[in-house]
Amino acid sequence: MLAMTWNVRGLGKAEKMRKVRSVILDQKPVVFFIPESKLGIFDCRVIKSIGGAALTGGVGVEAVGSVGGLITLRNEDVISVTDCISSSSCITVVGVLNKLGKEVAW
């Protein structure tokens, strides 16, 4: 599977993070997008907690209060990022499919 998105309506509970990680490990997407993460902090620990060894790269926008928050995770073995722009309501990522040399954006 190339890409997945899932609005989990907040990742504040460990149970939801485990469920998302389980889906990622089962479906093996190259890119995984989470709108409305509602996380006030986004760092490398969040990437590892959600993506595990499968999705090791990521970009996030922190929620404002209990609203918003965006996360996009990717498999760094498949896609190398060349550019990234983010705002409170949008993340745009441009990269290259490593084996094909083809540019992709999401």
* C-alpha termini separation: 15 Å
Helix content: 10-25%
- Strand/helix succession: EHEHEEEEE
**Describe the biggest sheet?**
4 strands, mixed
Count up the helices: 2
Low-confidence stretches: none
**Count of beta strands:** 7
Quaternary structure type? single chain
- Main sheet: which strands, in order across? 1-2-4-3
Task: Give the C-alpha Rg.
Answer: 13 Å
Mean pLDDT: 93
Describe the protein.
Helices cover 21% and strands 37% of the residues. With 106 residues, the chain is of the alpha+beta class. The chain has a domain at 3-76. The strands form two sheets. The protein has a four-stranded mixed β-sheet with strand order 1-2-4-3, with helices on one face. The protein is globular and about 40 Å long. The relative contact order is 0.18.
Short key terms for the protein model shown above:
alpha+beta, single chain, 106 residues, three-stranded antiparallel β-sheet, Endo/exonu/phosph_ase_sf
Compact summary:
This protein has 106 residues and is an alpha+beta fold. The chain is built from two helices and seven strands.
Which helices and strands appear, and what pairs or packs with what?
Elements: E1 3-5, H1 14-27, E2 31-35, H2 44-51, E3 57-61, E4 70-74, E5 79-87, E6 90-97, E7 102-105
Parallel strand pairs: 1-2
Antiparallel strand pairs: 2-4, 3-4, 5-6, 6-7
